[in-house]
């Protein structure tokens, strides 16, 4: 395969830190490279040097003649463009760009919800980021370099981007180099992983799962000082191998070696012990949403939400931006009152939220980290039963990547990732029994995400996670719900089912008479008279069956709440019935959408 670009003996040094010493790497046709490593170790600097945006202190970067490189940095640069259209297609006539399949696909996948002629200055940070990504992807590049491309994308946007870059070029041509902490994206797209650490770049074959396997093998053969890191990565490997079978189909993931390494590794969570502890701390009543609705003036958001949150339940919430996820969290925490129905909270419930605003740290910005944590309790119990270990706040900080020297650092001088980890530590030491994580992965690298997930595995309470990070959702929660059309929908098959429902909804909406200049009379069903009557009859039947299934589901949830919470076998049987019913509802809804599309198209 042809060489595209490379770096020879690169060195980079800042006044207080040596970032790289004598790094040599190369990018060839067909490479799909993911770059991982701790924050501050030089991932973005490496990308910038390879792209030619940053001059190394020593060594050189060479590029084959004629090779074009497109770069997405963490800064939005639109040049002289003033509108979304100008930023993405410039002054290219519409009849030219509209005939380009790639451009249409990029616009549809990233900015379909934006006003094509909107002023760039009026867009939010997330919207500007999507415009920047679209601006890059409509171009034709031999090497595509992306720095944190999944930031500000929802689950659907990330799935679209993965599919786009996988199909963008023929096999064994062009190259992708991506820096991201999104582990699902790394595993889905990349065939090689570069780990940036200790002033070097270490290559691994395969995506994230294969990288974890090779890291465990490397750590097993290294000195005993790597023991803590090794054990955490073994746990990560155990989840990848046991909890996500689809990943093991990757050709670079050596299944036999993985099984040998994790044969003595226990399950990542002792669910029975955690449920027992959660029940003892919370009782059987946590938070019940009973026909709860919420609407702003002239804008309904949530409608008739029925959800009884159980002690020890670990739930992931999915939904598009603006679907109502934050409103749902507000109802759970009590920050918002329902405009219809009611929300009941157990008497012992203590809710804490890890949010996107780093709440609570500004007021202690001038204080040292050690002073802040010293005001809280002196210990934290990690694990359950015979595996329970009491950790000091300092040991917790160490597990979350803080050095002893950083204990004397003022909070305001911490990086974004360090503040996020300190915020989580303070919350855990305060011992809430209901924990809400609202986009908790911001500013965290892959190692710190694994460390956070390790702590959450032993946390004995009710957990609700809202995140666009598919890997995190699948890793730390046991069930997923989606906010769709103002309703809360259980997802027995998780994220994949959510994406299927969203695609079906979009097809139904596309079939509706909403095209510019269109009218209802222009959309005539292609069904014959008999076929149409049969479809209408089946649709009516499905409506009745869905109504009956929803009634049965409410009855099962009521039985679950009233059941003896120490009877785990009985609770398990009820949970299986709920799961079976949800699967049935999922099939009915998909068929309902298919029939609606036929009748409207």
Automatic annotation (TrEMBL):
<keyword id="KW-0067">ATP-binding</keyword>
<feature type="domain" description="ABC transporter">
    <location>
        <begin position="5"/>
        <end position="223"/>
    </location>
</feature>
<protein>
    <submittedName>
        <fullName>ABC transporter ATP-binding protein</fullName>
    </submittedName>
</protein>
<dbReference type="InterPro" id="IPR003593">
    <property type="entry name" value="AAA+_ATPase"/>
</dbReference>
<dbReference type="InterPro" id="IPR037118">
    <property type="entry name" value="Val-tRNA_synth_C_sf"/>
</dbReference>
<dbReference type="InterPro" id="IPR051309">
    <property type="entry name" value="ABCF_ATPase"/>
</dbReference>
<keyword id="KW-0547">Nucleotide-binding</keyword>
<dbReference type="Pfam" id="PF00005">
    <property type="entry name" value="ABC_tran"/>
</dbReference>
<feature type="compositionally biased region" description="Basic and acidic residues">
    <location>
        <begin position="530"/>
        <end position="539"/>
    </location>
</feature>
<dbReference type="GO" id="GO:0005524">
    <property type="term" value="F:ATP binding"/>
</dbReference>
<dbReference type="InterPro" id="IPR017871">
    <property type="entry name" value="ABC_transporter-like_CS"/>
</dbReference>
<dbReference type="InterPro" id="IPR027417">
    <property type="entry name" value="P-loop_NTPase"/>
</dbReference>
<dbReference type="InterPro" id="IPR003439">
    <property type="entry name" value="ABC_transporter-like_ATP-bd"/>
</dbReference>
<feature type="compositionally biased region" description="Polar residues">
    <location>
        <begin position="519"/>
        <end position="528"/>
    </location>
</feature>
<dbReference type="Pfam" id="PF16326">
    <property type="entry name" value="ABC_tran_CTD"/>
</dbReference>
<dbReference type="GO" id="GO:0016887">
    <property type="term" value="F:ATP hydrolysis activity"/>
</dbReference>
<feature type="domain" description="ABC transporter">
    <location>
        <begin position="287"/>
        <end position="510"/>
    </location>
</feature>
<dbReference type="InterPro" id="IPR032524">
    <property type="entry name" value="ABC_tran_C"/>
</dbReference>
<feature type="region of interest" description="Disordered">
    <location>
        <begin position="510"/>
        <end position="539"/>
    </location>
</feature>
<dbReference type="GO" id="GO:0003677">
    <property type="term" value="F:DNA binding"/>
</dbReference>
